[in-house]
Amino acid sequence: IDMVIDPFDAQTIYASGWDRIRNNGESLIAGPGAKIYKTTDGGDNWAMLEGGLPTEDLGRTGLAISQMTPGLVYAMYVGNNSQLFSIMKTTDGGDNWNPIPTSEDENSLSSGALGGFGWYFGQVRVNPTDDNDIFLLGVDLWRTLDGGENWFQSAPPWWQYDVHADKHDLQFSQAGFAYLGTDGGMYRSNAAGDGWDDIENIPTTQFYRVAYNPHNPNFYYGGAQDNGTTGGNADFDWV
After folding, report:
1. Distance in angstroms (rounded) separating the CA atoms of residues 144 and 124
2. Which of 67, 88, 160, 184 could in theory staple to 97 by disulfide, Cβ–Cβ 3.0 to 4.6 A?
3. Taking the chain (239 residues) in consecutive chunks of 10 residues, what is each chunk's mean pLDDT?
4. Distance CA 154, CA 22 (A)
5. Element (H, E) at 105
């Protein structure tokens, strides 16, 4: 489900697994496949990593690798209850792992940070210019500037819709910008995270149902995934 390449050695790759089945008769979101594997020869041979990593059946996993420090990798695990299970850290290329703080303290990252939708999210990110600046993507965007000792929401709460709910990807540019991909589009922030701007105008709204007004047939309406109902026509903006 996730893979990262060592920026200091392109032959070294980390990959993480997830047991997932979804069809009309079964929905599986956890299992024994939540493991991390490493290759040092470009994929010819792989070894399962242990050294303190969870061994039980778990859900989705995610990986992030430092662009500054050789051997520094983060791994995120979702529990079989679709809540955050742990975020693990290695500084020696996967030989030994330790959890970073995710306690219930008010300044820490709680087990409910994924909102019970952990099967939908699986991304942890690290700032390419600061190993202690870590992000966890979920319904909301969580961030720590001190390696996990203190966490806070790095975007407005989802229900305000200043930044859309459901964060799936976060990438950083060499120009110092962060780009956040969500269910409702793409947002950009500067490196300090001082606010997010909605930067796309992509006509990809997912409509579940559409209809027209029988009293004014020139107006059409649609019920959209996660984005309410909008209406309009070719001559007017959709609102």
Report:
1. 11
2. 88
3. 98 98 95 98 98 97 98 97 95 97 67 89 95 96 93 92 93 94 91 83 84 89 87 78
4. 32
5. none
